[in-house]
# Entry
Amino acid sequence: MRHLLPWGIFALSLLLLPWLFPSVLGISILNEMAIAIVFALSYNMLLGQGGMLSFGHAVYFGLGGFLAAHAMLGMEQDGPVFSVTLIPLVAGIGGLLAALLIGSFSTRRAGTSFAMISLGLGELLAALSLILVGFFGGEAGISGDRSLGPDFFGFDFAQDRQVYALAAVWTFASTLLMYLFTLTPAGRMANAVRDNPERAAFLGYRVQRVRLLSFVVSGFFAGAAGGLFALHNEILSAQSLSTANSGNVLLMAYIGGIGFFIGPIIGAVLLTLINSVLSHYTDLWLLYLGISFVLTVMFLPQGLTGLLMMHVAPWRRGLLHTLLRPYLRTAVPALLCVSGLLALLETLHHQGEAVIFLGISLPGGQASNWLAIVLIITLAALDWHRSLPALRAAWQRATRGETP
Amino acid sequence: MSLLQLQCVSKHFGRTRVLEDISLTVEAGERHAIIGPNGAGKSTLFDLISGRLSPDSGSIHFRGQAIQARPPHELAQLGLARSFQLSSLFPRLSAFENLRCALLRPMGFGLSLTRLLPRAHALTARTEALLEEIGLAERRNTLAAELSYAEQRALELGLTLASGAELILLDEPVAGMSRSEAAQAIQLIRRVTQGRTLLLVEHDMGAVFELAERISVLADGRLIASGSPAQIRTNPLVQQAYLGSAIMQEGVDA
# Structure
């Protein structure tokens, strides 16, 4: 029963969130989150579970999306053929076939050559999408109307809300299926091949076949995510296939934590929020995203999920509360320091103009202002540094189970 | 027909001759050890038999089929399993998961997408039993990377023995073990290879004389002798190859 609890929470969140955020923007962001979850999970099937670092996963997402857009376009021209609810399936099969074709040679080796082939093919397809105008629609992309399929129990999918319902069902089912994959012999052998391909071969497995199987399954879900994306946006452009999109899914999986099944879900939710919310407030959000990624790689190789999981041991010992005070002690100067840095970056970015930062208006271009900010950063950083030994000591007590 | 047959096998690395004209047969059910001074080419010979390397000339037959150009996974499917001198495990999987991976193919799970491991009770039971047998039951959920050296050696052995292969190649299975650990490992090897064929490379002469019915001696890339332990002990060529080394003496005492 206990292992059903996370699934209950997941289903409930998918169900309740649209009631909490019923605005057009809210539903739209929820749609993007659901899509990102499927895409990021499919990506981690390669990176975290199979040890295949791909720089071109958007290829399968984009191809699935374009297939879905064409399916919608077809219904516009020839009338309803099949239910719109099946469009993600069509897109998934497209992604699967593309993955089968490309994987048949790219999965021969993992490591650098796999990464380079994925990067090259990603660029190739992005370039092709501007050349093969018939399929990819050139600069304008392909748009289709999702509401022209046959009615599905009264749903015509004209509204975002109804698309969200479809996306939520697909996301839940895809997540469950991808989780079950990790419990199959194929999923376990993917882990084994990730860890030690030579040993897997000496156990009688054709290593490439193990990788290809993961790759193809991953391609299916990436394609399905692309199909949902096409339904949500009703337009697909070359941007979906781009290396930027491939990079984005890598960030989601990595920041969330590639060593945990739930990691990419957390990463997808967080990055979707950052992409859509933070970008309203600052032009520099991509810079912040890049810095967070670098910091994650350097200090949290297990991602945010790894950071959470580190606290399981102190929690089991009932010592989690002992960390609260040292955390607060460190958090205050740390937040001050980071805010100072952000203020500095923002004022530098808006040279000469006034910047509204955390509700405070900072007139730009004044040296005294910058000096004050730098002073705050320096003092906060020093205090932050001073608070660390106490935090470290508290952490050791909490994890080794000694009460102070 | 012999289970394994090597005919005039040679292997060079660049200009270095590693193995020259090796002919060797291993009969079904035999326990055969290959010994020789360091650098004699023992590990290379293992790599050739198990498909990690292919010979420059000569042929290798396993169950009557030529195998000298076949990849490792095919040899494993034919019924040949090997262990590695430096433990070759799945470091980020637990001891239990390591063994379960090794049991998947022999128990007919292959690369199934439709069967769920938590429901494969027979597989779990077999894995637990094997874990018990190699003495790692208490380290069930420890990652292979975090096991001690001796525990990693035991797991290495477990991965090799799990396959149920007809021919088992062990590359220095007790290297680096303490006396008591080695004795335990030898007991385990004896028990699990019952009714199967064992080919073994080992430096520990105690282990060799305890396990092997036949011994072949490699020196400087050539097979200089092959025979029963008693014949090998008294063979003047072998004594000459080991001249100045105390290992042989230890073997005689054992």
Notes: The radius of gyration of chain B is 19 Å. Chain B touches chain A through 34 residues (CB under 8 Å). DSSP finds ten helices and ten strands in chain B. Strands of chain B lie at 4-13, 16-26, 31-35, 57-62, 65-66, 80-82, 167-171, 197-201, 214-219, 222-227.
